[in-house]
Design goal:
- By secondary structure, the chain is of the alpha+beta class.
- The protein folds into two domains: 26 residues, no CATH class; 75 residues, Orthogonal Bundle (Arc Repressor Mutant, subunit A), CATH 1.10.10.
- 30% of the residues lie in helices and 14% in strands.
- The chain has a three-stranded antiparallel sheet with strand order 1-2-3, with no helix packed on it.
- Strand 2 and strand 3 form a beta hairpin.
Length: 126
């Protein structure tokens, strides 16, 4: 998300850099809001990204289904095998690879409080 417009938000493609409006009728989810079903509940996507990084390896999203499942089980052993599909796993690995290539993966511990931008105050006069 780049900014807010009157009836939409402006989003920018990480692949092309092209900006476009996304309206409230569009089905858009922030990566921070995505989670994966587990036997005991849900695991947030950032937790999976952290596990992938800590594993020190990566599987190619175009690998065989058995290779993808095997690696996914390494990074999230208790994932719900009935509700998490290979297509979901591929998307997660593609997202991780894209964010990693663009150097956009940041650990929560790496962000210092002074690096967080404060929102601009809006004028009360309009």
């Amino acid at each position: 998300m780049v900014t807010e417009a009157k009836n939409s938000i402006i989003v920018e493609s990480l692949l092309t850099g092209k900006r476009m409006p996304a309206y409230s009728t569009s089905k858009i989810s922030a990566l921070a809001d995505i989670s994966v079903f587990t036997a005991t509940g849900e695991a947030q996507l950032k937790e999976l990204f952290k596990n992938i990084k800590e594993s020190g390896k990566m599987v190619n999203p175009k690998a065989t289904a058995s290779e993808i499942k095997s690696f996914f089980e390494e990074i999230l052993p208790d994932y719900d095998k009935d509700r998490v599909y290979v297509s979901d796993m591929k998307k997660i690995f593609q997202w991780y690879q894209l964010l990693s290539d663009l150097n956009l993966l940041v650990d929560d511990e790496e962000v210092k409080p002074e690096e967080i931008e404060e929102p601009e105050e809006k004028d009360s006069e309009s």
